[in-house]
Amino acid sequence: MVTNALANFSLLYDPLRRNSFCILCFSHITSNLGVLLIFLLYAVPSTLGQKEVAGDQMNKIMGQLTVVFWYATAYSHLAISVNRLVAIALPFQAAKLLTRPKSFLLVLVIWCIGLCHAAPYFWSECLVNLANNRQSLLGTYCYVYYDCRKWRWIIAESQCGKILIYVAKFSMFILIVKCVIDVVAVVKFRKINKVFASNTSLFTLSEVQKRKRRMEVKFFKQTLRRNGLFLVVFVNFHYISPLFDDRWLVYLTSTFAWQLLHALDGCVLSS
After folding, report:
1. Chain mean position to CA 217
2. How far apart are CA 145 and CA 132, in angstroms?
3. What single DSSP character describes residue 41?
4. 156-163, long-range: CB within 8 Å, 24+ apart, which pairs?
5. Average pLDDT of 92-117?
6. Cβ distance 3 to 267 under 8 Å?
7. Of the candidates 45, 73, 56, the residue with the CA atom closest to the CA atom of residue 262
8. CA nearest 248: which of 236, 239, 258, 256?
9. Which of 186, 215, 223 is nearest to 77 (CA)?
10. What's the pLDDT tens digit per position in 6-22?
11. Nearest residue to 71 (alpha-carbon basis) of 31, 29, 39
């Protein structure tokens, strides 16, 4: 949490970072903080208290908020990559395309999509039974909650829950698209650097221009590191963690892995 808070502080108070890219980074880091706050203020006390609250409404609400923050993180990741590609591939048009108002609008869209992803988790038995008192094909339970005995977040075991697990794996598609965009940006960035090096001496640039170029390289390296973190944690949570029965191994490959991802995101950005 400290690293994420410091990263957001640097984004707010560095004049060179008050641009479209950093607005998206701020959204991304804020979603990280949201997830970590839920872990710290809700999951930790629940684990220490060992209170069984699988059906508790507050537990469900915390699960819904976690889903919102998580998808805000994922889509902010994608938006940052697109932003960086546009800035590199279309340097002259970028000033018009990547304006602050458009960036704020994009952030609003990202968080609205996150809310849409969380909407199905509000599905409750009372809503299902409104339709002629007949059970829906999706089942009567559709929520995510924190299991303090297993130390992990669990989606309800219903047909609806199974569908939502597949929807959650959609994050992998987001990562693939993000990686493709980043690869294209790398190729374009190298070509531009070669042309730049052959025609312009760095000594002819002002100090501000030099600093901006160093920041471009730094931000791009940070994006690549985030891809690696995202991939490792995703594979751990969806494919490795289910192989274990031991509570500690499940915790390390799922809950702890997600916490580490959101914490290290702040380290990468503030480094």
Report:
1. 22
2. 28
3. I
4. 160/120, 160/123, 160/136, 163/138
5. 90
6. yes
7. 73
8. 256
9. 223
10. 767 666 666 556 688 88
11. 31
Report how far residue 265's alpha carbon sits from residue 244's, in angstroms, rounded to the nearest whole number: 27
Question: The tokens of 236 are what?
Answer: 């751990």
**Local structure of 223: helix, strand or coil:** helix
Fold of 2-270: Rhopdopsin 7-helix transmembrane proteins (1.20.1070)
Res 171 pLDDT > 80: no
CA-wise closest residue to 156 among 128, 114, 115: 128
Helices and strands counted in the chain (H then E): 12, 2
Q: CA 182 to CA 100: how far, in whole Å? A: 22
| Backbone phi and psi for residue 150, each to the nearest 5 degrees, phi listed first | -100, -10
- In the structure encoding, which two tokens stand for residue 23, read together? 């607005």
Question: Whole-prediction pTM value?
Answer: 0.79
How far apart CA 257 and CA 151 sit, in angstroms, is 12
Q: Which helix (H) or strand (E) holds 6?
A: helix 2-13
